Amino acid sequence: MTDRVNLRPAEMKDAEKLFIWRNDPETRNASHNTDEVVLESHFTWLKASLSNPEQRLLWIAEVDGIAVGSCRADRVGNAWELSWTIAPEARGKGFAHQMLSKLVRYFDEPLLAEVKADNIASIKVAERSGFVLKKSVKKGGNTLIYSRQPPQKS
């Protein structure tokens, strides 16, 4: 499959699109927080997130200039925890794997991903992108913790 996904930093102009994707029922079901997000809270969260790149990084994935998903990295100790979502209309086209494979190249630190045990699509994406199952925990359901170590420097 040709890698067609490009990543760019998220901006406030992406707020409405991110809000719609976040409240999509399938996205909410796959999220650790399944509550519907209120628009005003979303804008506040996004503005705070974009102003704190030492703790949180956000990207928009695009194909031919059209947004197809988003990914996020949250600082957790000496690692970054990654999460991602694909726009409902772009699912099933391999964009999540392309997006995550590209994203992991930005980091030279350990990476983590928490995936719900019933989220088969994200499990496959994480594993195809080099993440290894570390442990399973009960956290609002069954959650799988994946990790990926940075490439060895020669």
How would you sum up this structure in a few lines?
With 154 residues, the protein is of the alpha+beta class. Helices cover 30% and strands 34% of the residues.
What is the topology?
Layout: E1 5-9, H1 15-23, H2 25-30, H3 39-50, E2 56-63, E3 66-76, E4 79-86, H4 95-104, E5 111-116, H5 120-128, E6 132-138, E7 142-148
Parallel strand pairs: 4-5
Antiparallel strand pairs: 1-2, 2-3, 3-4, 5-7, 6-7
Report what the structure shows.
- By secondary structure, the protein is of the alpha+beta class.
- It has helices at about 15-25, 25-30, 40-50, 95-105, 120-130, and strands spanning about 5-10, 55-65, 65-75, 80-85, 110-115, 130-140, 140-150.
- A 7-stranded mixed β-sheet has the order 1-2-3-4-5-7-6, with helices on both faces.
- Strand 6 (about 130-140) and strand 7 form a beta hairpin.
- The chain starts with a strand and ends in a 6-residue tail after the last strand.
- The relative contact order is 0.16.
Q: Looking at the structure, what is the overall shape?
A: globular
The profile of the biggest β sheet is: 7 strands, mixed
Instruction: Tell me the series of helices and strands, N- to C-terminal.
Output: EHHHEEEHEHEE
Amount of beta strand: 25-35%
Radius of gyration: 15 Å
Helix content: 25-40%
Summed up, the helix count is: 5
Gap between N and C termini, in Å?
30 Å
Features of the shown structure:
single chain, 154 residues, alpha+beta, 7 strands, 30% helix
